[in-house]
Structure prediction request, 175 residues.
Amino acid sequence: MQVTLIATSAPLHFMKESNENVKVLFICVHNSARSQIAEEYLKRLGEGKFEAESAGFEPEQINSLVLEVMKEDGFDLTKKKTQDAWDLFRAGKFFHFVITVCDREHEKRCPIYPKPFAKLYWPFPEPENFTGTHEEKLEQMRNLRDTIKKRVAQIRRRNKWLFTRIKIIQPWNTF
Prediction:
């Protein structure tokens, strides 16, 4: 799978080598499935070099299928809350990378977070569109979970040099 770099918001002179953790925000419309899964795997697989969060612009409760499949892999998300991306922005949260995980059908609705260093787009299927029995939907969610896990592991490995050396020297104007 390829990672699509949508845009960068800072010229290279804003970067220097650093041991600072790379701040990554995974974002989708509801923050109920894909972004939650990606956040948890980056926290686990990121070797302490990443600070991962997830958010949405229309946050809902975490999808019950996500709770089930993540529990199978050792994550307890039952007490985890979804976040509103605008609340993070209003709180002054800055992220080096914002990775949107909406599917291609909902790409236009997929939110954009202002002012990251780089925006990446990873299209994953919309869990709300999963059909079939509970077991069939659960299997589709397992496949999605495993695909996201592999993508997070790939980006961590392939971009380890870049991701572990980014530092924004000064924030740019937000007005």
Remarks:
- The chain has a mean pLDDT of 79.
